[in-house]
Amino acid sequence: MTDTLTPAAALASDTEDVARLLDHEGCxxxxxxxxxxxxxxxxxxxxxxxxxxxxSRRLDAEGVALQRQGHLGLWAPAQGQEAVQVxxxxxxxxxxxxxxxxxxxxxxxxxxxxxxDFVMVWHGAQHASWNPFDVHVANPQIIxxxxxxxxxxxxxxxQRDGGDQVAVAYFGDGATSQGDVNEAMIFAASYGVxxxxxxxxNQWAISEPVQLQSRTPIxxxxxxxxxxxxxxDGNDVLxxxxxxxxxxxxxxxxxxxxxxxxxxxxxxxxxxxxxxTRYRDADEVAHWKARDPLARVESYLRSLGAFDDxxxxxxxxDAERFTAAMRSAVVGAEAPEPLRVFDQVYAEPHxxxxxxxxxxxxxxxxxxxxxxx
Length: 373
Fold this sequence. Notes:
By secondary structure, the chain is an alpha/beta fold. The chain is built from 14 helices and 7 strands. Helix 2 (43-68) packs across helix 3 and helix 3 packs across helix 10.
């Protein structure tokens, strides 16, 4: 079995069987499936897309730093996955509703989520990050794969209301082994609802390589549910835009769900509590860093004469302002009163929650007046 579980060699060939529009060096290539869906993507649009990718990476690095400094309880790094997140979000309509896992910070950047909203939940100061209906993005789901069911339920509502929106479920390769994802695909196919499933195959489900849980490409699973799929280079933002436009158009036009497998890589740890050096070798990481999604689109923009020092400096200044606001929000945050953890859990009063609140209050009282050591 070792030949199927040696990632560096396997992944080198694995990434060739994908649809792409920019090669590893950032040169434009043709793909008959994707070309029609990227025909109007010009340099000004790609500069904006690159801005969101750049901001996502800087925001991510700041989140890791804040966690290491003790301001956040946890952070789920997204370095290396900017193209699939930003590209697919750019391809959606403003009123399409996106259902992320805890790693899709790129789609939240595209949708205009504010700096403080990226950190206050990880700081433990509040239950949720933003009002989902302000940005048409659900609050990130921690339970692996659960958001796929939420997306399908929302899509069923769209269908019954006669709307033209789509719902988009984001999850990783590890989540495809969860029952929730498979059950969501069954419901989506059975009812023909307007939902797009986006699997970010970043090669590792924590410490488990994708070759162990999927002996064939993950995109091959969807047709078994009656859902058309496409396997795309997840480090090619232009291909991700085009693929998502195809998928969303299919769903939006009443033809039912679609599925994208975006082949990418998680450069950092699964979360800041993880040590990836225990299960990945340096050669594998170097192999994927050479396919960096930001470097690829930067190279393409430079070839178009659309990337210069002034643009780079403006990006850096924007990112510094954004990350400074993140840091200010979390460093200056007051610790919430402990019993507030029970507030806003349910819309209506709940006797079980009242009992839990009372027990926790007694527990807290034990730390006052010398009752606890």
